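Budget justification, computational time. The allocation requested in the original proposal was used primarily to generate C-alpha cells for proteins on the priority list. As evidence of use, we reproduce two of the resulting records. The first is shown immediately below.
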Amino acid sequence: LLPSSASLSTSLQCPSLMVLLNPSQFEQIILNLVINAGLALSDNGGSIRIRTYANPGIADADASLTLEVEDTGEGMSDEVMEQIFRPFFSTRKHAGGTGLGLATVATVVAQSGGSISVSSALHEGSTFKVQWPLADSLRRAQADERVANGPLKGLRILVVDDQPDIVRILRRLLKREHCEVITATSVKHGKDRMRTSGPFDVILSDVVLDDGQGTDLYAFAQAEQFAGHFVFMSGFGGTTIADVIGTTDYYFLRKPFVPRDVRKVLAQATGRS
C-alpha cells in the first residue's frame, strides 16, 4: 500500500516483553499508522521507520513498551495535530480521505489500555508513539488503582457527546463501575436531561457539540442551580474553558482516553480519590 518511492525500515527491540493486546488490534494499529505515514510523503518519496523499545520507568509499575511509526513527510501544524484523532477530520478529503484511520487507531489503543501521542513539524515529518504498560505491570497498576481510587458505585452521571462510539464506550465502562448513566447527544438534549432526569453527581460533557459548546451546559446548570460536578472532554488542550466560564471549578478529561483516566477524573471530581 506504500508508494513505490517510499522506503520502510524497522528497529524492533525487546521481543520477549508481554503486553495485554489482541494481535489483530496490533495489526490494525500498525496498518493504519503506516498507511497514514505513506500518505504524508512527498511525490519524491521518503522514509518510514517502525520502532519498538522498552521504557523502564521510575518504578516497575511504570514500565511500558513503546511502538513508534516515524516518517519524513510533510509534517503537521499544531492546529492539525489537535484534531487528527477526531472522527471524520481529514486534510485529504479531496483525495478520498475519510478521517477514520487515526480515529480508529486512537479508539483501539484506548480499548487495549494504551496511550497514543504525536510529535510533528511542518516539512520535517511526524512521529506517532503508542505506549502499553507491560502485562504484569498493568495488572499491578489496575489493582493499586482500585484500592487508591475507591468505588464509584452509585454515582449518577450524565454523559453528553455527539459521537455514538464515545457514548457507547463510556456507558459500558461506567455500568461496570455500577454507576447510573444517562446520555445525551447535544446541548439541547443535555438541558432536557438535566430538567427531567436530574440531579446528577457528575455531568461529563464534550466541549464541542453539534449545536453548541459544553460550556453552554455549564452556564445553564449554574443559572438553573442544578447540582453536579462538571467534567469536560476534548481532544484539544482545554486551556480556554476557564476563560469562557469564568472559573476553574471543573475537571478535564483529554481524548483519546483509557478507562483508568475516566475512573481517576470521576474519583477526583466526586472526592472519592
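The second record produced under the same allocation is shown here.
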Amino acid sequence: DILKERDYLPFDEAMSIFKQVCDALAEAHKRGVVHRDMKPENIVIENTDKGVYVKVVDFGIAKFLQEAEDTIGKITKTGTVCGSPTYMSPEQCDDGTVDHRSDIYSLGVVFYESITGKVPFSGTDIYHVMTMHVKEPPPRLRFTRPDLDFPAHMEQVIEKVLAKDPDARYQSVDDLWEALKGRPGDRTRSPGTQIPAPRTGELPALTGAAGKSVSEAEVAGVVSKALQKRMSGNPDLLAGQPPVPSAQPAVASATEEGGRIPTSALAVVSNRTSPEPSRMRAGVSLLDRVVGTWQAAAPALLTILLSAALLWVVANETLIHSLIDQNIKPMFAHTKTPPDAQSPESLIEKGKLEQARAILEKHKKGGHLSPAEADLLDTVYVRLARKEAQQKHFKNAVSLLEKVGGDASGSDEVKSLLKKYRKAAGR
C-alpha cells in the first residue's frame, strides 16, 4: 500500500524497514525455515504504542530444511511451482533445489522495487517473467530510475543479491544487511552450513498468534498443516495471490531498540498523504546524472521543437512559397520537359499568334499572367501589328501596339512603329 501511494521509498527509510525484515528472515533461517514467498504483501508494517513494528508474515508455503524428505518435501517435489513469479528466485522458476538463499534473492527483488518503484523483471506472461529471472541480468538502478541517485555501492549489491547462481549470492541475510549498509561482510559458507544464531537481544523469539513463545516443533506443525491444506486446495500458485490458509501462519518479526525504528521511517506509515520529494543522494557522477535527466526530458523537448516548427511553417506559408520560386525552382529549370503543344510558346513558334494571344489574354484577365508570359504577350502584339500593317489595316495595328505594356512599350521599335502606323491611319 505504501509503494502504491508513494511510488518508491527514499533509501534511508527503506533501510529502516529492511533492517527489521532482514532480522526476521535471519531468525527464520536460523530455525531452518525457508519462507519461499517473499514479496511486499508479506511485509506488514504495524503502528504500536512502542513505535513502528515490521513483520514478515504468511509462511504458508515455507519449507523446513531438515524435513526435505518428509511430506512437505514430497509435496514440493511433485513439479508444482510455489511462489509469486515476480519475486521468485531462478531456482524456484527452474524447479531446482531451494534453500535460504532463495529468500535472499526474493528479498533483493523487493528491495529493488522499494527504492526504485519498479520490479527488475516484469511482463504480462508469467512464464516470460520466470524465464527472465533464470536468464536475464537485472537492469541497473540508474537506468531504471535516472531521476534518482543511489549510494555508490548499491549497483554491486543488487548485482550480487540477484545473481542467478545461489553460490554467487550473499550466503546469509546478515551478509546482505552488512552489504546494504556499505560494509560488506561476505563470509563464505557452503550451501548446507547452518546460519549462526543472532546476538542476544537483537531478535525476539518466534511468536504465535497469541504472542507467546512457541517451540520449533509447534511451528513445524503449523507450517506443515498450512502447506498441505493450501497445496491440496489450490495446487497452482502461479497467480501470485495465494489463498489465505486456515491455519494461522507462523510470524517471524524483529525490531531495533525495543520495537522502535528511527523517526525517518515513521513517515513511511504516518505521513502517507504527503509524499516526500525525491532526494539526490551521493554516489552517481554528474555526467550520469546529466545523461539520465536528458534521457527523461528528450521526448518532451523534441515534441515542443516539432510543434514550434510546424507553427512557423503555417504562419510563413507565403514566404516559403516565395523562397521556393526564387531559389529552388531555378535550380531545376534546365530539367523541365519541352513545352506542351498547346502552350503559348509552342503556338508562337508555329506562327499561331491569335491562339497564343487568346491563351495569354485569358491568363491576364484571370490574374495568373507571369512576368515571362507578359513578355510573350507583348511580343505577340508586335508581331500581329506588323501582320495587320502588311494588309493595310493600320488602325488595327495601332490598337495592338497600344496594348504593349511594361518596358516594351517604351522601346524604340514600338515607338517607331506607332508613329508610322498612326500616320498611315491618318491619326
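A brief technical remark on that second record: The longest strand covers residues 43-48.
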